[in-house]
Write a structure and sequence with these properties.
There is one protein chain. The chain has 12 helices and 23 strands. By secondary structure, the protein is of the alpha/beta class. Strands 1-2-7-8-9-10-11 form a 7-stranded mixed beta sheet. The longest helix has 17 residues, at 186-202.
Length: 401
């Protein structure tokens, strides 16, 4: 049975939802699933915008066949050849072998490397500023390399004003029958997953996203059509502003993210006591166990918050391995400009704070370390209340200053 949604009179969503795959890119948990978005334009020429993962290819073929209603498929525009968008191409070409495949040169190369089009096909290389006409509609292409693969192009469809943004403006989560962002409680229920998607999938490429935003600024965009997540037809500027913040590595909230690594509860207790002291001072906090919360969520929260407290037990004369994994991830994803504070624990030779401080100072761009550092030996003692308050006061001044 086909499952489609009308975007405009001539443009349809023909994608699919995946609720079975547990890990996106086999690394990022997607408990709420993910959508693979494809769109079909019906004009004098018919155009399919992007494909889907191989597992969803039968649904894509059924959706397209239903809307074509006996017509041929003339064009397949591929903005990005990652397998969750390109693998289904083979099924489409088997059904409509006469379609011309339009993409960047890099995407054509990746298509051949993956073997998505094993038969001879008609190809058209799209370049920056080139324009295709399909009858009443025309499509202009814009290069967006490294958002987040080198093959990425985006395009702008007129007169609809539809901006096909590839993986930019994507979001984790299956759509479950709802296509448009205004059909969802996006600010409260979907924004955390949009942030987690951006930070972990696109986050490293902030300058490239800024370049794409500059190109998009000159377009009269009425519809924002990403490859994952809902289509935007209202309040587009609100979501674009989020991307602008994230891609400039500017925090959304003046809030303290407290991440702790604890073996037997002593470091956890100290981290919670610090959160209590900060809350009493009117400072917003978010507390996470680095061993229990998936690192993709910690990365997303790091993009959101202005201040980060690292609280770690000493482990093999180093800091806690999951804490190192987290710091390596935010380094790889380019996070910068945050203010850090340190809390360490060690029963006989506390060393975590020194090493975490060296990592922040030496590996993370534009980050600040607050003093004082608090050292716990096994468990927080009552006489250390003044030390904890001093750290809370320093954090408060930084947050509110």
């Amino acid at each position: 049975m086909h499952c489609v949604r009308e975007v405009t009179e001539n443009l349809w969503w023909v994608g699919s939802n995946d609720r079975r795959t547990p890990l996106f890119e086999n690394i990022h948990p997607i408990p709420e699933g993910v959508s693979y978005n494809s769109y079909l334009l019906l004009d004098e020429k018919t155009v399919l915008f992007d494909c889907v993962d191989w597992s969803a290819a039968p649904q894509l073929v059924e959706n397209v066949e239903h809307l074509l209603n006996g017509r041929e498929l003339d064009y397949i525009v591929l903005h990005h050849l990652e397998p969750d968008h390109g693998a289904g191409l083979w099924a489409i070409l088997r059904k409509w072998p006469g379609a011309t495949v339009v993409s960047s040169l890099a995407a054509q190369r990746f298509m051949d490397q993956f073997g998505f089009a094993p038969l001879p096909i008609q190809r058209l290389m799209a370049k920056e500023g080139e324009r295709l006409s399909f009858g009443k509609h025309s499509l202009t292409f814009y290069a967006a390399p490294m958002v987040h693969w080198p093959d990425v192009m985006v395009s702008f469809l007129e007169p609809e004003g539809a901006f096909f943004s590839a993986d930019a403006f994507g979001t984790f989560g299956a759509l479950n029958g709802r296509l448009f962002a205004d059909e969802l409680d996006f600010p409260h229920r979907w924004l955390p997953e949009a942030r987690r998607y951006y930070a972990n999938i696109v986050g490293k490429y902030g300058p490239q996203v800024q370049a794409l935003l500059a190109k998009a600024k000159g377009l009269d965009i009425n519809l924002l059509c990403p490859l994952h997540g809902p289509v935007w037809r209202r309040d587009i500027g609100w979501f674009v502003e989020k991307y602008d913040l994230w891609s400039r590595y500017e925090p959304e909230d003046k809030e303290v993210l407290v991440i702790y690594g604890s073996m037997y509860g002593g470091t956890e207790q100290a981290a919670e006591a610090l959160c209590t002291a900060l809350t009493e001072r009117g400072v917003e906090t978010a507390l996470y166990d680095v061993s229990a919360v998936h690192v993709t969520r910690l990365v997303a929260e790091s993009f959101r918050c202005s201040h980060i407290v690292l609280a770690s037990v000493t482990y093999n004369m180093d800091f806690y391995p999951p804490m190192r994994d987290y710091l390596e991830d935010i380094k790889a994803l380019g996070l910068k400009g945050r203010t850090f504070a340190l809390l360490e624990n060690g029963t006989w030779a506390p060393n975590a704070g020194k090493l975490m401080g060296e990592f922040v100072a030496g590996e993370l761009e534009g980050c600040t370390l607050l003093a004082p550092k608090v050292t716990v030996r096994s468990a927080l003692r009552g006489e250390q209340a003044a030390e904890l308050e001093a750290l809370a006061e320093a954090i408060e001044k930084s947050v509110k200053g």
